[in-house]
Amino acid sequence: MEITFDNNIPIYIQLVEYMKIYLISGVFKCGEKLPSVRDFATDFKVNPNTMQKALAELESLKLIYTERTNGKYVTKEKKLIEKLKDEYAITLAKSYFQGMKRIGLGKADSIKYLERVNE
């Protein structure tokens, strides 16, 4: 899991965002057991305490949960993951259209560019 960190944003916050993407994209599926904190920390090349902080944040968002002595798991609530995916997609779409508006393109022209790129 090779990722590049932005020095201007706390690493644990960036880890939370990467983990959200892994959850909504299906890398980690609903109900699936997650790797240990140490394994995640090794994979992401971060301190285990930083990884634990990111996982604690995901748990507070109810995206993962802990089973005592068994480890951490992805939520079983598919609707929660779908809601997160929908929110993320809307954020990306808004960002795209705002960028296109800054260069003087309206909605119709922006959609044409999306279609052109997707061909």
Task: Describe it.
The protein is mainly alpha-helical. Helices cover 60% and strands 7% of the residues. It is built from five helices and two strands, in the order H-H-H-E-E-H-H. Strands 1-2 form a two-stranded antiparallel ribbon. Helix 1 packs across helix 3, helix 1 packs across helix 4 and helix 2 packs across helix 3. The radius of gyration is 17 Å and the shape is elongated. The mean pLDDT is 95.
The biggest beta sheet is recorded as: 2 strands, antiparallel
Query: Termini distance?
Result: 29 Å
Low-confidence stretches: none
Tell the overall outline: elongated
Q: SS-based structural class?
A: mainly alpha
CATH superfamily of the largest domain: Winged helix-like DNA-binding domain superfamily/Winged helix DNA-binding domain
CATH topology (level 3) name of the largest domain = Arc Repressor Mutant, subunit A
Share of helix, binned = 55-70%
- Radius of gyration, rounded? 17 Å
Mean pLDDT: 95
* Percent of sequence in beta strands: 5-15%
Integer count of domains: 2
Oligomer: single chain
Quickly give the CATH architecture of the largest domain: Orthogonal Bundle
Tally of helical segments = 5
Broad CATH class of the largest domain: Mainly Alpha
Strand order of the largest sheet: 1-2
